[in-house]
Each structure stands twice: as C-alpha cells, then as structure tokens.
Amino acid sequence: MTSRKGTISVNTNDIFPIIKKWLYSEHDIFLRELVANATDAITKRATLARTQNQEIPTGKITVSVDKAAKTISIEDNGLGMTEAEVEKYIAQLAFSGAEEFVQKMKSEGNTPGNDIIGKFGLGFYSAFMVSNRVEVESLSMNAGSTPTKWVCEGETDYTFEASTKSDVGTKITLHINAESEEFLNAWKVSSTLKKFCDFMPYEIFVKDAEAKEESAHPGVINETQPIWKKDPSTLKDEDYKEFYRKQFPMDGEPLFWIHLKVDHPFTLDGVLFFPKLNPNKPFNESNIKLYNKQVFVSNNVKDIVPEFLSLLKGSIDSSDIPLNVSRSSLQGDPNIKKISNYVIKKVAESLKKLFNNDRARYETIWEDIQLFLKYGAISDNKFDEMMRDFVIFKNSDNKYVTLKEYTASIPEAYKTKMEGKVLYFEKGKSDYALRRELLSQGLQALETESYIDPHFTQHVEFTKLGDATYKFVSVDSEIASLLEQDATTDSDIKVKDLFTDILIGKTENKTEEEEDLDSLNHGGLKDIEIVKIKNSKAPAYFKVDEQMKRMNQMAKNMGNDSMFPVKKTLVINPGSPLIQNALKLHEKGNDALVKKIAHHVEDLAHISSEGLKHEDREAFVARTQELMQELTNLAL
Ligand code: ADP
Ligand code: MG
C-alpha cells in the first residue's frame, strides 16, 4: 500500500496549542486515557470474539519507554482498527470532539480540569500534550484485514503508511516533546500508571528499553482483580487487611470494613474501611478513591459520600457516576443522591449488624468510631434515624450502654424523678464520690467526652426520634434534687454561716467590687449552699449550672479558654462527719483549725469536680500535711 495524506476536516488549527496550554498541569493523564482506550479495545474484542465463537486471548497492555529514541509506546491486543476506522474514530470523530471542546472553552472562558477531557472525546488527543508526533499502528481482528499506520505531527495534517504489524491490536507510539522528557523514565511511567491504573482489569507491563537483558523482564504494575470486584463470600478478613495494608501502608490495621455491591438501580462496587483515627491528623483529606470500571478517576468523592463518611478510606467503583460533568450538576443528579443514600444505609446496616452479632467487638472499636458516628448522626438525619439506638456510652460501672438501655436501667423508685433525664459526667473529671452516691441508689451516670458530646447530647435533646425524649443533666447539677434530703436544722444554718465567713468573707461589709474580686480569687466560687443528703458522708461538692457548664465547654472547644469564671456554688453537706466535727471545733473556739478544714473541704470539692491544676497541687499537698499534723496533735 502506498502512503496517503489526509487533512482533518474540521477547522481546528488552534486545537493543539489549546490542549497543551489548558491541560498542561494535568498532562500525566495521557497515560490514563491511552491505557483506558486499550482496555476498552480488549473488552470489545472479547465481546465480539464471544459472539463469533472465536478464541479470546488474555488481554495484555504493554507500555514501553525508550529514552534513547525518546518514545513511549502503548500496545494492546484489543480489537484493532482498519485504516477506515482509524480515520473515522481517531482522525475525524475525535477531532470533532476536540473542536466542540475548544468552542465551549472559548465561549465560557473557563479552565477545564482533567475531567473535561473524556467528556469531549479528547481522550486520545491528550497524547499531543506530551508529544510532537504520534503514530497509531493497528491490525483489526476482522478476518482479512491489513495493518495500517497513521502518523500525525501535531498539526491538522496526517498521513497513512504501510505497516508490518502482524498481531491483532493497536500500538500507539508517542514521540515525546522537549517539555515532557520527564516521562522518558520507566519509573515515572510506572508510578503514573500506578496512580491511575492500579486496578485496571487487564495486566499492564512496563518495559524499559534501557534495562539490561536479565532485568528487562517487564513487571505487571496493576492488580487486575481489585478486592471490591470480588464476591465478598469468597474473601477472608486477611484479604481485606492485606488490601488495606497495600493501599495505606502508613496505617495500622483497619477497625472494620464494609463491602458495597449493588447492581440495581445503579451499579456500584466498593470497599470502605474504618481506619484507626489519628487524632493529631486532620480529617479533611479524602481517602476514598473513585473509579469508573477500575480506572481511577478522582480523589474527590464529595457529593457521592456525605462529608462525615469521608473519614473512611477505600474505593468506590461505579460506571453510573457522571464523572465528566461539572460539580454543580452532580449535586442535583438523581443517581448521585441514590448512590449517596445507598452508601449511608449500607454503612449504618453494617454497624448495626456488628452491634447485634458481636457487641464485644463493637465496644472495642467504639472509641475509634464514635466521633464519626456521632458526627454522622448530627449531620445526616437518615443516618441519625438508623444509628441513634446504637450510640453507646460508658456508665458508672464502666459498661457500655445505649440510651435506651440506660433509661431501662433506672430503678423503679426513681422513674418519675428521672423521667427523660440522662445523668452524665465528663470524662476525666473525678467526681467519684457523687457517682458512688448515685450508684448506691442504683442510678448510673454516663461518661461524656468533651469534644463531640456537647454537640451530640444537644442534638439528641433537640431532635426527637420516636417517643424517647432525653435531657442530659450532669451529676453535680442534679444530685441534690435527686437524692433524698434531710430537713435543714439550725445547726446546718450555722455551718453555712461559718463556711461562708471563712471561704467568702463577711459579705455585709464588702462592696460589690470587692465581692467580685473575691469571687475571682476563689475561682468563681460565689455561693455556698447547704444540702443535707441522706446517708451521705461526702462533705462538699461544686455545683455548676448545667447551661453555663455547656456554654463554657463549647467556648473551650473553640479555643476560648474561659475568659470569665463560671459561677460555681459550693454545696456543703452538713450531715457529713467532717463538717459536723468542724462545727464542734468552732464551738470549742479552735477557729484556726476550722479554717484549715474549710479550705481542705473546698480543695476536696475542687478535686472531685475538676481535679487539681498542676500548679495547685503542691499547695494542696502542703496544706493537707499541715492539717493532718494538727489533727494528729489534737488526738494525742
Ligand atoms: P473515547 O475513548 O471516549 O471514545 P478517545 O478519543 O479516547 O475517545 O478515542 C476515540 C476512539 O478511538 C475510541 O472510541 C475508539 O473507537 C478508538 N480507539 C482509540 N484507541 C483505541 C485502541 N487502542 N484500540 C482500538 N480503538 C481505539
Ligand atoms: Mg478514551
């Protein structure tokens, strides 16, 4: 056959400069596009061969890098093309797509991202971003075909030449331009292919022309059978873990995973892992990769999975996600909404299943998944509806319970007083004494942590699901009104006056300013109350208004470390033996010792509500030692 010249029929003189200019920053996608075309060609060949009862060869793609010749070639054993087909699909059709692209970009004046390329059929032409000459050699699978070679030097003219290609398939040779020589490196090509083609369905070999004979044996760079395409019933835990290790080598073991598989009304496969969260690492980086038929498309799964699920890691593969349209239309896409709902539902179901079938395991991973779960419940009402009953808290006995279980555990005698209430204490705060008191009455309290729970508990209070209503009340704000009290006597009033004198000072003679200063000096202590809890030996505790406490916590979470002191009330239990004895000492005139006891009682209340700050500890130890010494002397 003689060589033949042709001209691209559409007016596209400016296509190449535009492609180069606009797509420059993303120019490694040419490998993805050409390998994806090769993959399509192999799939088409298999389909046709099946209908024609022909033998189906194992699909294979070879990418060769020749630094000396300055070429990269991509060869497949797909269906191949006749000269007429090359002319039609490559030279004309693809160019018309390119023209449409250029027109659109000109009229809108915007900058396309790499997702625009596929849409306008620019896939093949991305080759020109890195080449100054592209050759397509092909032999069609159709019986009696002759091989053909098409050559284009990045202008609208092209030639067809004779070819000696003897195997069915297509070989595309790129003569790499001066700006793109970084790609003339087998390692660079391999790593680019790994990024985009790690899970393509046919084996991809990378051949380095420079490599010595013995090491020239090309390696397969991809995993043709990614785990998400496999049947979950054939997979063991170890298979998932191994996949995870390969994908996220810096992580520890995943806590838990979910295999997504759906055929109708859309197709989707995927595996999502719950990573062990690193609290020091921000959550905003997305670790879910989006694939379209095993071809990597994007790290951006926004809109496809809700934000709270972006804490998960893994892969989602769907050919029903319109990848090449702009973000705004993606949001309104009914398929996307369906997919997103499906993923949410599936995640919730898997967690429920784990809860029901292996509660011990669920509890083991709870610490790591709770942030995600509570955040999910707050931000997505569907997820909330499905998961609220599966949120668990540690109770005073260090056992995990759901809110329903908590309510059910309230003793009959307290059912009315506790109606809808959930007693809680903040993690790390050591109000054991109060909790012990409640526990002796069979009342549990739930541990909350400071970061997400102020939001989560508020959410639960405001968003009612079913007939359950909840009101979270902290142990210290509620204990006095819950537990049975003894009537206040005259001697109790004396206790109040005595402690007020010592700890706050005689208020009558003070100006308001002095009082405020005093209150500051006492860490916000302003009031003293007496509450005589029946059968309680605890001398005192601090009570903080529930609403104030929460506001303060939220401010703290936002980095606003209490600018103003929160008003606290020192609640003294005159029934406690220590207080009783302090009163006796006062009556005997030993006020020096009473003063020490009063400060000690305040210290104890501090310890039980917040623990002591490091700088206070030394003073506390010194004061306690002094008091002990004095009490011992007294006894001897
Ligand atoms: P798209 O892949 O979206 O159709 P491309 O520009 O990537 O657009 O490719 C244009 C056409 O060229 C393909 O549809 C296909 O018919 C043909 N083609 C490209 N590469 C190959 C190949 N390796 N083997 C067979 N046909 C190919
Ligand atoms: Mg393509």
Report what the structure shows.
The chain is of the alpha+beta class and 636 residues long. The protein folds into 4 domains: 4-208, Heat Shock Protein 90; 227-355, Ribosomal Protein S5, domain 2, CATH 3.30.230.80; 391-482, Rossmann fold; 490-635, Four Helix Bundle (Hemerythrin (Met), subunit A). It has 20 helices and 22 strands. The strands form 5 sheets. A 9-stranded mixed beta sheet has the order 1-6-5-4-7-3-2-8-9, covered by helices on one side. It has a 5-stranded mixed beta sheet with strand order 10-11-14-12-13, sandwiched between helices. The protein has a 3-stranded parallel beta sheet with strand order 18-17-19. α8 packs antiparallel against α9. Mean pLDDT is 83; it is low at 111-121 and 324-329. Bound molecules: adenosine-5'-diphosphate and magnesium ion.
Question: What are the SSEs and their pairings?
Answer:
Elements: E1 4-7, H1 15-23, H2 29-51, E2 60-66, E3 71-76, H3 83-108, H4 115-119, E4 131-139, E5 148-152, E6 157-162, E7 169-176, H5 186-197, E8 203-208, E9 219-220, H6 237-247, E10 256-262, E11 268-274, E12 287-292, E13 295-298, E14 313-317, H7 327-332, H8 334-357, H9 359-379, H10 381-387, E15 392-394, E16 400-402, H11 403-409, E17 421-426, H12 432-440, E18 446-448, H13 453-462, E19 471-474, H14 475-482, H15 490-503, H16 512-521, E20 525-530, E21 540-544, H17 546-557, E22 568-572, H18 577-587, H19 591-609, H20 614-635
Parallel strand pairs: 2-8, 12-14, 17-18, 17-19, 20-22
Antiparallel strand pairs: 1-6, 2-3, 3-7, 4-5, 4-7, 5-6, 8-9, 10-11, 11-14, 12-13, 15-16, 21-22
Helix pairs in contact: 2-5, 8-9, 8-10, 9-10, 9-13, 15-18, 18-19, 19-20
Magnesium ion (MG) is lined by residues 33, 36-37, 123.
